[in-house]
Amino acid sequence: MTTQVIDVIDTCNLACPYCFGPVNSKKRMSLSQVESKLDKSSKYVVLTWWEVLLHPEIEDIIKLVYNKWKKIIFHTNWILLNKEFLDRNKKFLYRINLPIDSNIPEINEKTRWKIHLKRIKNAIDLVKNSNLKLSITSVFCSLNEDYFDKLADFLETIQPDLWRVFEFKNVEKLKNADYLTPNQDKIKFFLDYMKNKSFKRFEFIASDSEFYSSYN
Ligand code: SF4
């Protein structure tokens, strides 16, 4: 099974400290650029980064990709996600991905935004009530490394279809971000803790994984 990732916009409305993403260039792909990128052999298309809902033609892009018989995995930080958008588009979407770094408000605030946690919980409910598949991504860094067992307990009650945890990786684009590098013993503790948890699918992406190679 192949998955194709299409980065439709180079802008975000958050400023997470570990983000090697958007330069906020305002660059975005046109419908015809998206169409020309579509690889007919891939089974899923991930529409991402950085914040897809900032693209003014995102709903046309969704329909375009859907009409090419691709299943769409939609990555959003939720800020602009609402019921009306989901009602209009849920029949075109396969899975929605939402980010959360801790279920403890003051810890999540350090990586995301002050009211992120409250809203992400609402967004999780919206996605589940829309009967869409839900995936969650989290970044394991020094700011939240002591609280991943609690996040695991919380997410186990939600049962996302996938929980993917990325180990923070310092890349060239980030300046002075060494302080975010997590402690390896804390990663080991978390991975041991996960052995007794029951998730539909759990993946830990280590900082030396292939995933990061294109971002060095
Ligand atoms: S929401 Fe994602 S793209 Fe936006 S700043 Fe945070 S990590 Fe970067």
Any overview of this molecule?
By secondary structure, the chain is α/β, with parallel strands linked by helices. It has one domain (3-215): TIM Barrel (Alpha-Beta Barrel), CATH 3.20.20. Helix content is 31%, strand content 19%. The protein is built from seven helices and seven strands; from the N terminus they run βαβαβαβααβαβαβ. The chain has helices at residues 31-37, 58-67, 83-89, 105-111, 116-129, 148-158, 184-194, and strands spanning 3-7, 44-48, 71-75, 93-99, 133-140, 162-167, 202-205. The chain has a seven-stranded parallel sheet, with helices on one face. Strand 5, helix 6 (148-158) and strand 6 form a beta-alpha-beta unit. The longest helix is centred in the middle third of the chain and has 14 residues, at 116-129. The radius of gyration is 17 Å and the shape is globular. Iron/sulfur cluster (SF4) is lined by residues 12, 14-16, 19, 21-22, 49-51, 77.
Bound ligands, each once: iron/sulfur cluster
In CATH, the topology is named: TIM Barrel
Helix content: 25-40%
**What's the mean pLDDT score?**
90
At the fourth CATH level, what is the homologous superfamily?
A: Aldolase class I
User: Largest sheet, order of strands side by side?
Assistant: 1-2-3-4-5-6-7
